[in-house]
Automatic annotation (TrEMBL):
Family that this chain belongs to: Belongs to the ABC-4 integral membrane protein family.
Keyword Transmembrane helix: yes
Keyword annotations from UniProtKB, A to Z: Cell membrane, Membrane, Transmembrane, Transmembrane helix
Gene Ontology terms: cellular component: plasma membrane
Location of the ABC3 transporter permease C-terminal domain: 291-412
Domain of life: Bacteria
Membrane topology: Multi-pass membrane protein
TM spans (from-to): 21-41, 287-312, 341-362, 382-402
GO molecular function: transmembrane transporter activity
Start and end residues of each MacB-like periplasmic core domain: 21-248
Name recorded for this polypeptide: Putative ABC transport system permease protein
Cellular localisation: Cell membrane
InterPro entries recorded: ABC3_permease_C (IPR003838), MacB_PCD (IPR025857), Macrolide_Exporter_MacB (IPR050250)
Amino acid sequence: MFNKDRWNEIIEVLSSNWVRTLLTAFGVFWGIFILILLLAAGKGLENGIKQGFGDAATNTMFMWTRTITKSYDGMAKGRRYSYRLSDVSDIRENVPNLRFISPRNQLGGFRGANNVIRGLNVGAYNVYGDYPEIIKQEPMDISSGRFINYADINGKRKVAVIGEAVKTGLYEKGENPIGTYIKIQGVNFMVIGTYKKKNTGGDGEESQSQIFVPFTAFSQAFNRGDKVGWMAITANDGTPITAIKNQIFDIVKKNHKIHPDDRRAVGHFDLYEEFSRVESLFTALKVIAYFVGTLVLISGIIGVSNIMLIVVKERTKEIGIRRALGASPNTIRGQILTESVFLTIISGMAGIVFGAVCIYGINYAIDASGPIDMFANPSVNLGVITTALTILILSGLFAGFIPAQNAIRLKPVDALRNE
């Protein structure tokens, strides 16, 4: 129940020596401010790094061939091999919990020899022979037209989806590429769509300088037969690709007579494993932020406890009079704890507000100056604020507990004798 006299007394006690009160409150203010700032900085770093993953299916592994390093079953080491469409079928049939398996072929290269012609314009671009599922594994925005589909795959249609950078390099400004033809290593392909990659981590220009054509048309046009250059394999949600990738490797090794212990023959990049490492890193950073912020906060709480001990000492005679007039120990204890919690919460909330203003300023500066590599949108969520408030309340109770216990242990007669 609100007691106006009690709160007037609390304010009077804390303002009687305002310099001392401000210096004490600064410790709590600084502890909460540092905690908020560390958590926001960690979140900004986390957001920036995760932007590099974009909306990519993180439960994905990319797999390619490498030189065989162990002789096996009469086959010499040092030989090269190629994946086949039969490998794709075997993996799909024998490995459970796979969501997508996309065989891929590739030619050309960004900044390599010119391999694409459109009229008088030429350029060097990565050209991929793909299946429609690749757009779910490497998400992209279709800015015009459409992506390849299974009608294109089954009909071996010579159609292409080009990146915005390809459009800029081969077409005049404002020209619509849909329905026009480009020549890829002497073979005509009709443009059916343009895209812009969502994931621009790394070399953003290169990610927009790619051309996607149906896998079957690619194989036919460039004499690849049933060869597969590499694969993008995505597992179902709830089943980490890391947990089943060895089953995939075993199938490939069996099909190509590779020693079971040859770890270098199958090249791969486990996106799930990398993403999990990032998650673990930021969990550790969050723990460190809480640890450092809490240590700074504890120093402030010790200051509050000390100041409350001094306040109790200064009010010894007042406490004796209250006890003599019938005030219960719980009343005295409640008064001291209320003062401690009030001082802690007010200073802590000031730290939270100041931290929020600083975070807003940082975000404003980032928006004004443009994106910063590996750092984006530093922020703290409502859960952090709730945790901070809980810490403040508990800290205030802790800071006032010992002074309150000292106050109620005073005998009224001894307190009245105190000068």
